[in-house]
Amino acid sequence: MRTGTLGPGVQYAFADRHDGVSVAPYDLGNLGDHVGDDPVAVATNRARLAGAVGVGSDRLAAMSPVHGADVVLVAAAGTAPAADALVTISPGVALLVLAADCVPVLLADAAAGVVAVVHAGWRGVRADVTGAALERMRELGARPQRTLAVVGPAICGRCYPVDRERFDAVVAVAPRAAAVAAAGGPALDLRLAVLERLEREGVGVSLVGGCTAQSPDWFSYRRDGVTGRHGGVVVLRGAP
Ligand SMILES: [Zn+2]
Fold first, then answer.
1. Which residues have their alpha-adjacent CB atom under 5 A from ion ligand 1?
2. N or C: which terminus of the chain carries fewer CB neighbours within 10 A?
3. Ligand 1 centroid vs 92 CA: distance in angstroms?
């Protein structure tokens, strides 16, 4: 578990797959409630993650990813809107993002009191969900140059071969995603693309983890099929 701050009053935590009580194939720290794991184990794992930022699991706000670029403003915990980016200005609402190869991002402008999370797969990178989240944050008073991000683990270019059509579709809008697979052929490095997108706006980025498919510390859908989800949480502190 990595924990820290993204500026004064903003706490985050990012859990790896060792942080929990789930059993195989979801061992140990699965946070996904839609993958077939025991709900009691998932609740325990989520409570552990919430506790790492000082809130109860009833303060979590999750998302139901649809691989789009919509950004939902969340005012209360306990919901799971169909979107790949959530933003809040409400203290105590802990935004949760899950992944198992896609790119999970935590964002905060502490001075503006705005936090967000983003889930970016190839469709999300193509639709620029990261840019959409930054724009929504800006509308709420945030400035990218003052914003800090944590970018979690994701499948790397060597491990993510794709067909030429998908490669072309993504690279047309995110050139930094262009990669070569370990076995040769077109591949995508979505985390590099997200990093480039954030840095282009002046966001300060730190990384958690490396390649999900190569490390036993993370869940990888591509590697394992039926598996869990790791994830991170970010919260503005200051309310009950
Ligand atoms: Zn890899």
1. 156, 158-159, 211, 213-214
2. C
3. 35
